Amino acid sequence: MATEFGFRLLRVKFNESCKSNHFLYFKKHSVREEESLRPSDKTLFVINVPPYCTKLAIKKLFGKCGGVKSVYLHKQPGKVKETKTSLLNTDNEVKGFKVAYVVFKKPSSLDAALKLDPMEVLLLSDEDNPVLTGVKKWSHEYSLRYPDPLTLQEEIDTFMREFDKKEEQAKEAEKMERGQPDEEGWITVGKGGRKPGATKVDAAEIQEKRKKKKKALVNFYQFQQRETKREHIAQLRKKFEEDKKKIAEMKAARRFRPY
Question: In this model, does residue 87 exceed pLDDT 60?
Fold first, then answer.
């Protein structure tokens, strides 16, 4: 049963004991530019997702249609950025009502999801996959703020190894480019060591800052303002005398016709 704007209806409720239903609206995800994380032939766009609903609950809900590769929750529709889960970043939950992007492993799973019965009521929370609420949810969020020290240290060590590896690659690339000519045939020469020479971009920025600083100090003091006015008046007088001289020369040559 399709609704306005092409959305289909799905009835859900929190658990078996809940008497009221909640309505989810979904349709096939479609964008002008194809995205690698959300391919249009495998992605389902869901709106009116309740605040207590989690990625795991959404994955279980549509998992009956086929394998779910990933679920993205957002406050409002927009682009998806791939983010790594970390023990240091636990406050990434979307508050309030949200939208979801369900990415299936196969296009056939998306077709099966679009054929779900709108009259069937599905559960978001059960004994096997409970959705935490209230005090249980707050206690779980509090425990996540203080992760296991050994696990945290392992994550830090992994991050630092990747960081050092990238730094070494950047240094090697800089060494390779240092002796190579650019597009115009110029070779950048600079001293190495702890304090290498400034790059072209840095040098240009330094020169620009010096110019701005020098310009900002012009006419800062009163004597500078007086000197500037005197120089301006002197230039005007000089130009006036030069114009008088030109007019006199043109009169003498009988080529002066003012009217």
Answer: no
CB proximity list for 98: less than 8 A, separation 6 or greater: 49, 51, 53, 73, 74, 75
Helix, strand, or coil here: 1? coil
Whether the per-residue pLDDT at 51 is higher than 80: the answer is yes
Contact call for residues 108 and 67 (beta carbons, < 8 A): no
Give the CA angle between residues 66, 72, 76 to the nearest 5°.
130
Q: Where do the structural domains in the chain lie, given as residue ranges?
A: 2-83+93-145, 220-254
pLDDT digits (tens, 9 = 90+) for 141-182: 788 777 788 888 888 899 899 999 999 998 888 777 766 666
Q: What does pTM read for this prediction?
A: 0.55
Residue 103 contacts by C-beta under 8 Å, 6 or more apart in sequence? 37, 38, 39, 42, 43, 44, 68, 69, 70, 71, 72
Single out the residue of 41, 52, 26 nearest to residue 140, CA to CA: 52
The letter for the amino acid at 226 is R
What is the CATH number that goes with domain 2-83+93-145? 3.30.70.330
Structure-token pair, residue 87: 């023990």
Report the alpha-carbon distance of residue 151 to residue 250 in Å, rounded: 94
Rounded to whole angstroms, the Cα distance separating 134 from 52 reads 10
Rounded CA-CA distance 246/253 in Å is 11
